[in-house]
Amino acid sequence: MQLWHSVLQLSLLASAAIPTAAASAWGFTDATVSVNTKGAGVGAGVKEVIPDNKALTKPIALGVADTLKVTLTAQEGRTGKHAHQVYLLLQDPETGLDISYPFNVKDNGKSRLDLTQKDLPIQFLTAPEPLEARFLIGSFGESTAYNGAAFQLAVARNPDEPVPTVEVSRYGKLPEIHHIFKSDAQSPPIVITLAFVAMVLATLPVLGGVWLFLGVNVNHLPTALKSAPIPHIVFLGSLLSIEGLFFLYYSSWTLFQLLPAVAVVGSVAFVSGSRALGEVQGRRLAGLR
């Protein structure tokens, strides 16, 4: 009986340990870091192998004309896989400033990253101590992400060359802005105005001749004024008032002064004109032409 209980307890412990053993973690393998100088030729650079899931002991120097190349294979457990996030994190140990650079990851987990000094923040170019480089590898699922040191990066610069600077926009007093507005519209010369007035007045005799040719009946004027004196007088007066408003706009008024006055006089002309035309229609229906 005791043997049976011992076997049962061991079975329970083994079953409880299976999920823990099955849980895997992200890491890397086949990691290398190399520095190649532009125009130095093949084999002139430096290449170091980074131990699996460990950090490189010696620092890597990156010059002005150098290119840093980092390669690795992301793996989940012992299998190379495409991780959702593979980053190289650079951090200044003195100030705590850091920046991350994403790797170019393939489906089999092989990842690559190229960097130059132009890709680094200006604050890193003057760092007195080597920068700490870390690998960040993680993805969806229950596997534990990897966050560990990879190597140290020493940024080497020529002391005779100035460090690039970036102008930063800051809040403060700005120079005074002087607005130059467009000048107001001016009336045309009086000669052009008189020429157009003459052309308009020259059409009045033509209009009178057309009326006489069509047989205008001036004898009905007393009858019209007797039947509806107020609509006819107000309608003709409103037409003359509109012409007077246009003259004021030409001489001294502005557009904002003209529009309300034209709206009022135009409404009066519409109402009185409809009444006057109604009287004319009544005479025509009665056969008086």
Automatic annotation (TrEMBL):
<keyword id="KW-0732">Signal</keyword>
<feature type="domain" description="Ribophorin II C-terminal">
    <location>
        <begin position="181"/>
        <end position="284"/>
    </location>
</feature>
<dbReference type="GO" id="GO:0008250">
    <property type="term" value="C:oligosaccharyltransferase complex"/>
</dbReference>
<feature type="transmembrane region" description="Helical">
    <location>
        <begin position="256"/>
        <end position="277"/>
    </location>
</feature>
<keyword id="KW-0256">Endoplasmic reticulum</keyword>
<protein>
    <recommendedName>
        <fullName>Ribophorin II C-terminal domain-containing protein</fullName>
    </recommendedName>
</protein>
<feature type="transmembrane region" description="Helical">
    <location>
        <begin position="230"/>
        <end position="250"/>
    </location>
</feature>
<feature type="transmembrane region" description="Helical">
    <location>
        <begin position="190"/>
        <end position="218"/>
    </location>
</feature>
<dbReference type="InterPro" id="IPR008814">
    <property type="entry name" value="Swp1"/>
</dbReference>
<keyword id="KW-0472">Membrane</keyword>
<dbReference type="InterPro" id="IPR056790">
    <property type="entry name" value="Ribophorin_II_C"/>
</dbReference>
<dbReference type="Pfam" id="PF25147">
    <property type="entry name" value="Ribophorin_II_C"/>
</dbReference>
<keyword id="KW-1133">Transmembrane helix</keyword>
<keyword id="KW-0812">Transmembrane</keyword>
<dbReference type="GO" id="GO:0006487">
    <property type="term" value="P:protein N-linked glycosylation"/>
</dbReference>
<feature type="signal peptide">
    <location>
        <begin position="1"/>
        <end position="23"/>
    </location>
</feature>
